[in-house]
Amino acid sequence: MINNERSKENNNPSVDRALNILEHLIVEKSATIKELSEKLKIPPVSTSRLIKTLVNRGYLKEKKGYSSSFSLGMKLLRFSQVVYEQIDLRRIAEKYMQELSEATGQTSQLAILQQSSVIYINQVLPRKPVSIIAPLHTELPINVSACGKVLCAFLGEQDRNTCVRGAELIQATKKSIVDKDYFLKEMEKVKLLGYALDDEEFAKGIGCMAAPIIDYTDKIVAAVGITGHIKSYKGNEQFSKIKKHVLEASLKISEEIGHNNNHLQ
Which domains does the chain have, with CATH numbers? Predict the structure, then answer.
C-alpha cells in the first residue's frame, strides 16, 4: 500500500487541480473562474487554462455573461452510464443477502419490477428455510409480496398509479388487498415507513419484509427482503431486529450502486 506522503509525491498537480474543479462543481453546481481560483487555491492563470481545456473537451459547459460561470458538461454522463452498465446488482447484493439471511434466520430475496408484476431474481436460503416461498424468475402480483409493495410504493406518483391500475391484484388469502384504491393508499404509507410487510397475504403462516434499493439517480431499481414464519413479525423485539437488518441491507446495497442519501432517515 502506498502511504499518503508517497502518494502526494506521485500526484500530477495539473490532474489534481482539474479533478478538484470537477469535484467542486458536483457540490456547488456552478462557479466563476475567480471563485474556483480562490476556493481551490489555484492561480488564476492556471485555473483559466484548465477551465478552457475542460470546456473544449466537453467536461464543462460555459454560461456566458459579464462574468462567465461554469458547470459540469454532458460528456460526464458517458462515464456514469458506462459505470452503471457494469454494475452487477445480483453479485453486489448477494453478500448482503447472505448476511441478512444469517442474521434473521430467514430466506433473503432480491426482486425487480417488470411492468406491474414482481420477479425474484435471486435468493439466499437460511439453514432452515420455510417451505412456502415464491419461485425465482416467475411473475408474482405486487399485492401479495412485500418486495412488490416496495417496488410500487417508491415509484413516482404517476408511475405508481399506472403500475397499480395495470396490475392484477389476486386474493391469495383472506388478508390479500385487492381493492386498487385502498392498495394505493397503503403504498403511500409504505413510502413513509421506508419498508413494506406481507402479513400472511401470500400464504397463511408466512410473513415478509422488504425495503428499497435506490441507485445514484435516486430511482428505485430493486427491493431486498426476507421471508419467514409469521411469528417472527409479531413480537416487538423480534420485529425491531428484523426491521433493522432489512433496512441496513437495503442501505448498504444502495450505497454500493451510488446512492449517497440515507433513505432510512
Answer: 4-81 (1.10.10.10), 87-256 (3.30.450.40)
